[in-house]
Amino acid sequence: MQRLQEEVERLRARVTELEAALEAAKHRADLYQAFFEHLPVPAGVHDAEGWLVEINRVDREMLAIPSRELVVGKHNLFQDPEAVARGYAAHLERALRGEAVLMPPTSYDTAEAGIERTEDRKVWTQTSFQPVDVHGKRYTVEVNLDVTERLRAQRALEESQRFLLEIVENAPSLMYAKDLAGRYVLVNGQVERFARMDRAHLLGKTDAELFPSGIAQKYTASDAEVLRTGQAIVRDDVIPLENGVATFVTTKFPLRDAEGKPMAVCSISVDVSEQKEAEACARKLQEEMLHLQDATLRALSTPLLPIAEGVVVMPLIGNIDARRADQVLETLLPGIAENQASIVILDVTGVPVVDEHVASVLVQAARAVELLGAEIVLTGIQPAMARTLVEIGADLGRMRTRSTLQGGIALALGRGAMRVKR
Questions:
Q1: Sheet with 174-179, edge to edge strand ranges
Q2: What is the 3-state secondary structure (H, E, C) of 159-192?
Q3: Nearest CA among 32, 36, 61 for reference residue 141
Q4: Distance CA 46, CA 74 (A)
Q5: Which residues lie in coiled coils (predicted)?
Q6: pLDDT by residue (tens digit) across 369-411?
Q7: Distance between CA atoms of 379 and 381, rounded to whole angstroms?
Q8: Which of 180, 187, 246, 372 has the largest CB neighbor count within 10 A?
């Protein structure tokens, strides 16, 4: 009887011990369940047959599943056509064979999954499967990272980069960039065509490896100036070619990183060779026109007019400076010989001011005419002009004078008639 009593006490102690162990196990299970439920990443558990045996809150929220009871024990990944089509089932099989699997980002349309949801939407997830053995049974822990926003940002960045690259590639100018070591990191098609090299040969090279030393040093110095000052520069680049030279207007400016530090030098070179050539032609044409205009004005300002046999008239109009004085002699002397003139009438009616300089011009003209065997008649001297000539002591020599051009012409014609009679 005593032994039975002792056995009962031992069994009671064992029961108490087992109850405590069960309570501890239940506590640990509740703890692990709570941890799993509140994991900050979406997670689920599948058994060896593909059935979903657990799914946490974040995963349910991402997939818009109202409660775990709707899917736990009711959804089989191997039997979901959408999951099979998108590769989830195949990756689960790999994990069940003991392989840790990370799927590429995959879109998941909640409307096509065949599960009751609070809303229909499309998300992008990157799913990993990790095999786990519990009491001799194989399970897989599935972690679904929502990468929708990351992919959207990545695609937006790619679109932006593609947009900018399309602009660069189709720009009608040479566009290129070099890193801080002077290596080409970007060239567009215009650069390839101009250099007659593909970009695979250009990228990673420096100016010293691509151009003659003089040109390379010039390019390197301008890049260094941009990096030193942090300011854009604009300059003309004249590049010798086989059939001449090409002229470019080049703008260089620094490219900065997110912290504002220079990370590269970008250049845009616009070919202005045709414009420069057109400007040179325009300048040459303008110079020729100015030369022709000057010659025309000279002819108009010092005309020599034959009015009778052996008689020519040169009316002077405007101020007489050194240039005009040379024009008078350059026109007058050849004209006397060409017209075989014996009488030259210089009319100064249109000269507003007669000073010592003008008087000197007239005296020089008279002496030159006399040397050619002709006689000069000065007309158009007004009273004020005559007084000025007297005051400055102008020596007009044997020059005959008349107050009007008509008087000078009458004198010249009369003297011409006298010579004919002789």
A1: 184-187, 174-179, 262-271, 244-256, 233-241
A2: HHHHHHHHHHHHCCCEEEEEECCCCEEEECHHHH
A3: 36
A4: 11
A5: 1-28
A6: 888 888 888 888 877 777 777 777 766 666 788 888 888 888 8
A7: 6
A8: 187
